[in-house]
Amino acid sequence: AQSNVTVYGIVDAAVMYTNNQAGGTNKAVMEAGQLLTSRWGIKGSEDLGGGLKANFNLEGTLANDTGAAGAGFGGSNLTQNFSQAGNNSSLFDRLSWVGLSGAFGAVTMGRNNILGVDSVGLADPMSLAHAGTNPNVALVGLNSGAFFGGFGTNQGGTALRQNNSVKYVSPFISGFAGAAMYGFGEKAGEMSSSSYAGLAGIFTDGTNGAALSFAKLKDPTGNVSLSGWAGGIKYKIVPSTMLRFTYGHNTIEGKLGAPVAVTSPNDNRKITVIGLGADYAVSDQLTLTGAYYNTKRSGDFDGKADQYIGLAKYAFSKRTTAYASLTYAKAGSSALKDTTLALGIIGTDGVQSKATRAAFGILHAF
Amino acid sequence: AQSNVTVYGIVDAAVMYTNNQAGGTNKAVMEAGQLLTSRWGIKGSEDLGGGLKANFNLEGTLANDTGAAGAGFGGSNLTQNFSQAGNNSSLFDRLSWVGLSGAFGAVTMGRNNILGVDSVGLADPMSLAHAGTNPNVALVGLNSGAFFGGFGTNQGGTALRQNNSVKYVSPFISGFAGAAMYGFGEKAGEMSSSSYAGLAGIFTDGTNGAALSFAKLKDPTGNVSLSGWAGGIKYKIVPSTMLRFTYGHNTIEGKLGAPVAVTSPNDNRKITVIGLGADYAVSDQLTLTGAYYNTKRSGDFDGKADQYIGLAKYAFSKRTTAYASLTYAKAGSSALKDTTLALGIIGTDGVQSKATRAAFGILHAF
Amino acid sequence: AQSNVTVYGIVDAAVMYTNNQAGGTNKAVMEAGQLLTSRWGIKGSEDLGGGLKANFNLEGTLANDTGAAGAGFGGSNLTQNFSQAGNNSSLFDRLSWVGLSGAFGAVTMGRNNILGVDSVGLADPMSLAHAGTNPNVALVGLNSGAFFGGFGTNQGGTALRQNNSVKYVSPFISGFAGAAMYGFGEKAGEMSSSSYAGLAGIFTDGTNGAALSFAKLKDPTGNVSLSGWAGGIKYKIVPSTMLRFTYGHNTIEGKLGAPVAVTSPNDNRKITVIGLGADYAVSDQLTLTGAYYNTKRSGDFDGKADQYIGLAKYAFSKRTTAYASLTYAKAGSSALKDTTLALGIIGTDGVQSKATRAAFGILHAF
To answer: What is the predicted pLDDT for the residue at C181?
Structure first.
């Protein structure tokens, strides 16, 4: 019955230059979490005997460019709240759960990642780099408050993690596992409004893998749904080269009420993201990655944007990596219905329609 | 002069169902901290030689259903601020102190628990379970901001812990110890307003015990006092069975000013809580607890409410426990003067007067 | 490539009495961080081989009198925001960086201390005690939001640490080292507004030392600069006695816009702080310190204030120290232009011009 507790994290900082901001200007910034989202946390496990374990994990986002920790979530009972920031704040916004695991699988209760993260995340073309502007994270993973803030248990902010949720992950049998998760809307008199429900299946042979997930989130009225499918495949064709493919699609089903601006979600909005990527291991230390994302929106407005990323990673060790990346984003037009799909890379002044971004950074995991 | 530092905590999550909410509805939620309040902290001790030690403890509340950490306290100079939330926030809201201990006892300075916690807490009928709705915690322990927010050094939010306080605990002599604590109101020109002063005595033979405490808190004007007595006895009548008894009484002495609503504290308000409980150890792992609380209010409005709780705990280990509980709360009537004494279990729509709650949860301490 | 992670901190609490507050009243308070600023943090280092190391440090302010952690910074695009508090909050407000070190020196990226801290801090007359009212910390170190909040990358709150910054510290060669640091203003179209740039040189023979630093911070318009020089020398004349001398001067260069009140910074404001101190080691455990600070303001208003401090420290161990101090502060007059330079020690009611403060505290480092 001994327990071990680990304080761990990732501190990742990069200098980035982007052109074609509003007014055609350039911008130089320092940002946290460009190779992997910076975080810190506490986790532990206790062996209860007979294969049974008690586990917990507390983990929060770390904006190590300013020292800010945690993130906001909604929590107000606004009908819709499409805002990245929330009125409530959560220090351990990424994970905050306790649970049991054993031969039956694992059950966790608290704030959990939605199942799409573990499925599309498995095969993300750039392994979840540039998470803030990565279409798989922001759009398929429902991390963009501006696009998905009003649905699910958080009632604002990111939908990528869900408050008040119970998650079950089955054991792996012949490489296959399944998972189910439910988040309580916590409203008196009914179970539907502000709830989350998800299912996922995964296969892996240790190197290659495939995953598929489904999520359904309700708005605070219970009348409108956000549904999402996500899937991914990764396959090592030769020892040096891993190919990755992802597909994600989500839909707002129902009438959100009053017409909203073009940059906000709308009735029957559909977003589809296709991702393609390849990792090429030049040496044990140097890996080159090429990634492509295609984002399309329909149902409310027809919009599209593409991202092309080249990424070089040099691993000093398993825990420390220097990296450089070049991103080219191109929207279907300079209209907001297109440029907002580039998730902030392109200036949204109605004039710009493409932008190039360079990043140079270092990641250390502890 | 070696120092050890420990990161520790409790992560406790439960699914709860309660009927008779406003409108007669049911509600299903996931809540943190139902067997013991979830928390995380850092503590340490340094041996200075000759029996002298330097000690510190930082500890904060953990809402592991959302990942939120810490709690708010008042801090504004409002005359009275009967609000659970505060304008200021404290990450280490439960404990934040540094001190010395030795043959003379222990002195700690910073944010301390009031002395009532350690006295009535010793014998709480359900060992401080369901803290959010436990009359001993919320009312005797002054944890309810809505009832006690305006008094003491915090000037809002819970009064259970006091900012700017010095605490002294004597050594145990023949099983007896005493404690005294003072919290600075920090107002120029006087020492009374917003201050806290408390005294406590405790006896224990290692198994059985008794404790008595007194607290006096001033409002920000210095004209109104909140005084509280609390006492508890626990006694193991047979090896399998521990009996527990608590009594707590507090009084607002003086005129708070303008009349306030029935759900707020008022001039000369008195609250008395009587608790009775028994733990029965079925086996090393399984413990059954029965608890009863009687809450009465007078002086401003005559109100009352009762709670009956059955609780089963199954200990996987010393650190990990699964539990189930059933609570029946019954107010004197459906009026707010009665139902508010049930601390949120019963819907306060003026129609409901009783409610039943079931909870199923798991606690892991690390 | 092993990594070690340390959770560390300082918990320092003191009871303080100050006379001559507004209205001539006395005030008794408990405050955190009077010998050294209370803090907690996580740091670690990984050996990458060949002398190369990866390092990180996350550290935040700890108000252990209330349990509050972290600090606010600005972040709004207000033209000037001379406020100690900020709209954004940073849990790891003191340090939040990742970097590499080796034969070339050390590079860190994130939120860093400005270089003046490490130079004038080396020789501060009372070794950075009473940081909240220490002229070297508040004025030379730019920690006073009320005096310096609008400049640099934080855009409000303290300027002592800078968001979005890259810092380089050279190796020591024959006792000499240099450092340079740049903080990104992160504004599209230009690199000047809200930026920080600094240079420093340091010499040490292990016991004695000298340091000199320069900083230039821009306001959010880019039109107004805050420039600061700081230097310090410490010299052990006999084994028992260390002398300390500091000089710091900063200037606002340019027109801040609309006239502001006398208590706010203003066009062409200049502040000079001279510090003199001596540590006398009575024994291995007991150290007596005498310190004197002279603060002068010109350019906008002519003001001045002096502080005289006597400080006794008794070290129970390397990690635990009890202390007592007596401070006498005297302003040039009772006008705000003078008394505000005493940084809150003297009541600012336009009547008081001097005050005496006594502090009794304990510090424990873990």
So the answer is: 97
- Closest CA relative to residue B5, chosen from C146, C128, C7: C7
Coil, helix or strand at residue B147? helix
- Shortest CA gap B29–chain A (Å): 5
For residue B280, report the phi and psi dihedrals to the nearest 5 degrees. -125, 115
Is A106 an interface residue toward B (CB < 8 Å)? no
Per the listing, tokens 């004209």 go with: B223
User: Domain tally for chain C?
Assistant: 1
Residue A361 near residue A348 (C-beta atoms within 8 A): no
CATH of the domain at A269: 2.40.160.10
Among candidate residues A202, A165, A160, A164, the one with its CA nearest the CA of residue A181: A165
Pseudo-torsion of CA A159, A160, A161, A165, nearest 10°? 70
Around Cβ B50, how many Cβ atoms within 10 Å?
A: 9
| Residue C81 near residue C155, CB atoms below 8 Å | yes
Three-class DSSP category at B46: strand
Write down the residue that tokens 């208590």 correspond to: C263
N-term to C-term CA, chain C: 26
- B95-102 and B88-90 strand pairing: unpaired
- C297's CB contacts (< 8 A; 6+ apart) are C269, C270, C271, C272, C303, C304, C337, C341
Beta-carbon separation of B92 and C30 below 8 A: no
Kindly state the DSSP code that residue C20 receives in the 8-state scheme: -
The whole-number pLDDT of residue C261 equals 40
Q: How far apart are CA C54 and CA C108, in angstroms?
A: 10
CA distance C363 to C366: 10
DSSP B171: P
> Given pLDDT bands bounded at 50, 70 and 90, which one contains residue B3?
low
Q: Given this model, what pLDDT does residue C256 score?
A: 66
- What tens digit of pLDDT does each residue of B209-252 get? 999 999 999 988 888 899 999 999 999 999 999 999 999 999 99
Please, are residues B109 and C362 in contact by the beta-carbon 8 Å criterion?
yes
| Positive or negative: CA dihedral B350, B356, B360, B365 | positive
CA distance B119 to B229: 10
Does the ipTM exceed 0.90? yes
Q: What is the distance between the alpha carbons of residues C224 and A203, in angstroms, rounded to a whole number? A: 60
C103: confidence class by pLDDT, cuts 50, 70, 90: very high
Q: In this structure, what token pair is assigned to residue A333?
A: 């037009």
Chain C residues in contact with B96 (beta carbon < 8 A): 11, 62, 64-67
Q: How many CB pairs under 8 A join A and B?
A: 136
Side-chain-side CA neighbours of C340 within 13 Å: the count stands at 18
A34 touches chain B (CB under 8 A): no
Domain that holds residue A301: 3-365
**What is the overall mean pLDDT for chain A?**
91
Whole-number Å distance between alpha carbons of B274 and B278: 14
Compute how many other C-beta atoms are within 10 angstroms of the C-beta atom of residue C143. Answer: 24
CA angle in degrees (0–180, nearest 5) for C35-C36-C37: 125
Asked if C41 and C59 touch (Cβ cutoff 8 Å), the reply is: yes
Of B5, B188, B190, the CB nearest to C7: B5
Could B48 and C320 be called an inter-chain contact, meaning their C-beta atoms sit closer than 8 Å? yes
Of the candidates B64, B361, B366, which has its C-beta nearest A96's C-beta?
B64
Instruction: Give the span between the Cα atoms of A282 and A314, in whole angstroms.
Output: 10
Q: Answer yes or no: do C319 and B164 touch at CB < 8 A.
A: no
Residues in chain B: 366
Buried b (16+ CB within 10 A) or exposed e, B263-281: ebbbeebebbbbbebbbee
Pair of tokens at residue B221: 């004007």
**Whether C347 contacts chain B with CB within 8 A:** yes
Q: Do A64 and C55 touch (CB under 8 A)?
A: no
Q: Are strands A88-90 and A39-49 parallel, antiparallel or unpaired?
A: unpaired
Residue B121's alpha-carbon distances to B36, B61, B92, B311, C195, in angstroms, are 12, 17, 20, 17, 54
